[in-house]
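Protein data:
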Amino acid sequence: MFLTDRPLAAMKEIYLAKDIDKAQVAIKAFEIDYGAKYPKAVAKITGDAAVLPVSG
């Protein structure tokens, strides 16, 4: 299963977040919006949330 433009844009919001708080908000939004359709992607992102780098 391939991610489409909207989920990819949502993931971009996560990895381009300016600080950890904004990244966590983006992660939660991704989980809510795409959890049902892309459970493996959501599990990976939420599982790795503590180690995701934050740009800035």
Helices lie at 5-15, 20-34, 39-47. The radius of gyration is 10 Å. The mean pLDDT is 86. Residues 20-34 form the longest helix (15 residues).
